[in-house]
Amino acid sequence: MEASPENRTIEDSAANTQLIDQLCNELRDYLDEKQVNEVYRAYLFGARAHEGQRRKSGEPYITHPLSVARILAEMRMDHQSIIAAILHDVIEDTPTAKEQLATEFAPEIADLVDGVSKLTQIRFESKAEAQAENFRKLLLAMAADIRVILIKLADRIHNMRTIGSLAPAKRRRIAKETLDIYVPIGNRLGMNSIRVELQDLGFAALYPMRYEVIKNAMMKARGNRKEIIHKIENDIRDRLQQEGIVAQVEGREKHLHSIYQKMKQKRLSFNEVFDVYAFRLIVDNVDSCYRALGAVHNLYKPLPGRFKDYIAIPKNNGYQSLHTVLFGPYGVPIEIQIRTEEMHRLAEAGIASHWLYKSGDPSSGSNQSRANEWLRGLLDMQKSSGTSMEFLENVKIDLFPDVVYVFTPKGEIMELPRGATPVDFAYAVHTDIGNSCVAAKVSRQLTPLRTPLTTGQTVEIITAPGARPNPSWLNFVVTGKARSHIRHYLKNLKQDEAKALGRRLLERSLNGLAYTLEKVSKSQVKSTLKMYKLDSLDQLLEEIGLGNRMALLVARQLTNDAPKTSNKTTKEQPSGTNSGSTLKNMLNRYAPSWLVGGKNSPTPLAIQGTEGIIVTYARCCRPIPGDPIIGLFSPGRGMVIHVENCKNARDYKKHPERWIDLQWEEQIDKEFPVEVRVEVANQRGVLATVASAIAEMEANIENVHVDDRDSKFTDLVFVINVYNRGHLANIMRRIRLLDEVNKITRSKG
Questions:
Q1: What is the pLDDT of residue 159?
Q2: What is the dihedral of CA 572, 573, 576, 578, to 10 degrees?
Q3: Residue 135 has pLDDT above 80, yes or no
């Protein structure tokens, strides 16, 4: 029989009173009475704000913030964090404003609550975008005050403990978010106990049947293991006593999620994973750690290549321990961790140890400094990330580091994710070093920038003042910082190059009208910008450089000699047949013939080869200095250069508004790729012979592939870098002299 509303209210009040009393009793162990009273006042405020609200389970809503506060009390968090935990949902779920919290309590508490609150006022196009933007907001607040994420982790733990009352689809979504984001953050902050609990709760919610199967198998297998565990513990204790080492020896049971992950990744059965016996040795000092390691290695044979020293080189979250794997009795493998009591506290509490053990523990301070350093890196990353989705992608990359340890030339240790390259290393040292990186020495040997680094290598980055990031780096960098900074640099670079190209194109068009940009009046510039709905001349130049606007029509507009157009036709790119023909008619009417297109231009635009990413060279015909060339405008991309007789350039007469005559500068000191096809006799060593001839002519081979024609002849297709047509002619002449070569031709699309 359901309780009446009056009885239910009385029951709720009694339950709430019990919860706040338990919380206050815990807080009195480490806070003074005045601070405990402030916490109680926050409870009264929160209870009034959430009055009438209930959770999906039917409990009064205030039970959730109180439970979150108790989790933080177990971490011995300060009273401001406890108050913020009690109030953490009032901005998001009640009419309470941030300013009211700042007045009632303190601005610092209001900032903490606001940092944890989701962005409910903004409408997003998708749940993924909303999640990304909320996560970005959380991390920015967390960078200002690390306690924000501790409150959020405690909030997530309680939500996961009580997730059973939610609908299955929502349970799976929240569980996946927990495993994808909050577990890695807990790991990154060194909070092992929180990480493990969130992992197991997330696993149970996401895969309930798999969780139950492994849990039941674990309970059945425990009984068979007791005798072996007891024997190993006694053997280890006896050996340590013989060596005079005082230590706690305890068996470690693997967690369900950890067992599941090993079974999945290594394709092992449950018995193969569960048959690994794990022990932890806790000793009094660092010296005893290494002595204990020697003792257990004398007791059982160590497994080669399975020893890790995280004391000498701590993990990036501050974790320290010695790890080793031994061959135990009956041939069973034994995993052993050896650490001090202080290291054990840090491993379990992580960043929270700064509050939990404030009594002069230097390690907790260094742990917090590591977390702050990571947060500064996140701030740096978010500044250079274009969107929230991109930022979330970069952070996820950064949160899953299966790490390698490398050294700077000065002997400093750098920690990078597995698969990191010298470019990742360069950006980890400093953004400017990454941006100006041109080469790398790994263990004193020149190494390609895309080479993955391995633990123990010394990396030296070679920089050059005029160097800049290469777009191809995005194909192999693995760190979020490197990826976001390369994208940011290239985005700005593209804008700058588009402006520079746009200025050249506009000046060229104005020259044809006996004008220069300096002669154009400010009022005419202003009216032109208004017509195109742009804010600045730089934006207009960028639009021209990107191929979105015709330089000729802009020049006519600036000189007040343009045909009148309606707002519907301010964008010059034709959207259909009629608009295209209209534009062509306008060009024929208002432009000299050499500006419209064709081969009779007395002043073609000069190409220097250094225009950057806004000017690209067509892969179909691969133009090189000396070739007659024309340029195709591609909206949003800029200009693509083709050889004049390229088959893909044949339609320029049909659409002259999209093409422009070009010429090469007289002096170009830059290499350009060109494709040559060499027909050779099908015999041993012919590829090496041709490659050697190319190298003799001081040309670099960028790529080569082999087309087998028949038993007699084979085609070798080379992409080689040359300076101009003369250089290419010399190379082809040298290759023709080879006995094995039957024919050589240049591919031109």
A1: 92
A2: 30
A3: no
| Mean pLDDT over each residue of the chain, to the nearest integer | 79
Give residue 265's Cα distance to chain centre: 23
Mean pLDDT of 690-694: 90
Asked whether the beta carbons of 652 and 597 are under 8 A apart, the reply is yes
Question: Is there a contact between 176 and 127 (Cβ–Cβ < 8 Å)?
Answer: no
Domains of the chain (ranges, CATH numbers): 15-206 (1.10.3210.10), 217-357 (3.30.460.10), 532-664 (no CATH), 672-746 (3.30.70.260)
d(CA 749, CA 744): 15
Whole-number Å distance between alpha carbons of 295 and 281:
12
Helix (H) or strand (E) holding 282: strand 277-283
Question: 256: which residues sit within 8 A by CB, 6+ positions away?
Answer: 200, 203, 204, 211, 214, 215, 218
Residue numbers annotated as active site = 92-93
CB-CB contact of 391 with 132 (8 Å): yes
According to the model, what pLDDT value does residue 531 have?
Answer: 78
CA angle 742, 747, 748 (to 5 degrees): 150
590: pLDDT strictly greater than 60: no
| Model confidence pTM above 0.70 | no
Nearest of 277, 270, 271 to residue 230 by alpha carbon: 277
Average pLDDT over residues 67-72: 92
Strand order through the sheet with 445-447: 445-447, 437-442, 459-463
